């Protein structure tokens, strides 16, 4: 990736990232006045940690070991005077076995309606744990994204937890599966919130989605 794009990403994410609101019903969504990028992934995939790493925060999105608790869309806003503005949307984690069926149905409906009805959603970032690869619950979301024609980008998390040789196999396998999905980007990102691997590149990818001011 070129230096200029990385520098733009760094400068964009050096801005304050402001928590705006939590949304449990679509009527509560902020006006669709800015581009947004939504972060999706199984509970415990490392979503909060990745958001914190991207935004240089330690407490922006609270990390927790109690998966399945957040059933809301959390909106954050980054504003940059030259590069424009972008909402970051932290979607509820999924795939947690101990959540009741009715809760799963509730949030599936919320998510579907959001994906289908949000014209300013520029991209979804689909987080996949590098130790586990794509799971069936990820496939459900991938199908949903394909059906709603939301373009998405695969991001492997916790790359520091996987030996290099094994990691390459996971990258290849994940890339191959994503390439069969129409709405998925052909290239996946490989990240670690612990080592910082891939964070600068992901910042650059996402900063490019901000609106012109
Ligand atoms: N080694 C390692 N652990 C991570 C990484 N990202 C998250 N974790 C750990 O994985 C667990 C779940 O992380 P969290 O960000 O809360 O996941 P979330 O449920 O998807 O928001 C926590 O114990 C984190 O410390 C990473 O890149 N490397
Ligand atoms: Mg979280």
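^ Assign residues to that structure.
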């Amino acid at each position: 990736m070129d230096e200029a794009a990385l520098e733009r990403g760094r400068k964009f994410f050096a801005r304050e990232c402001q928590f705006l609101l939590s949304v449990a019903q679509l009527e509560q969504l902020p006006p669709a006045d800015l581009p947004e990028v939504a972060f999706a992934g199984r509970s415990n995939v490392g979503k909060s940690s990745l958001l914190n790493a991207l935004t240089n925060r330690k407490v922006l999105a609270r990390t927790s070991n109690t998966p399945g608790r957040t059933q809301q869309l959390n909106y954050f806003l980054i504003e940059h005077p030259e590069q424009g503005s972008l909402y970051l949307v932290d979607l509820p984690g999924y795939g947690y076995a101990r959540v009741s069926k009715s809760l799963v149905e509730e949030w599936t409906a919320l998510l579907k309606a959001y994906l289908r009805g949000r014209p300013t959603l520029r991209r979804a970032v689909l987080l996949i744990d590098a130790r586990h690869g794509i799971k069936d619950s990820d496939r459900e979301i991938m199908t949903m994204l394909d059906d709603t024609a939301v373009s998405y980008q695969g991001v492997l998390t916790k790359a520091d937890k996987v030996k290099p040789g094994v990691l390459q196999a996971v990258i290849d396998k994940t890339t191959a599966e994503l390439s069969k999905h129409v709405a998925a980007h052909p290239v996946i990102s490989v990240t670690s919130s612990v080592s910082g691997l891939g964070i600068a590149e992901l910042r650059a990818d996402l900063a490019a989605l901000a609106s012109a001011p």
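Helices lie at 3-13, 47-55, 101-117, 136-147, 164-178, 199-207.
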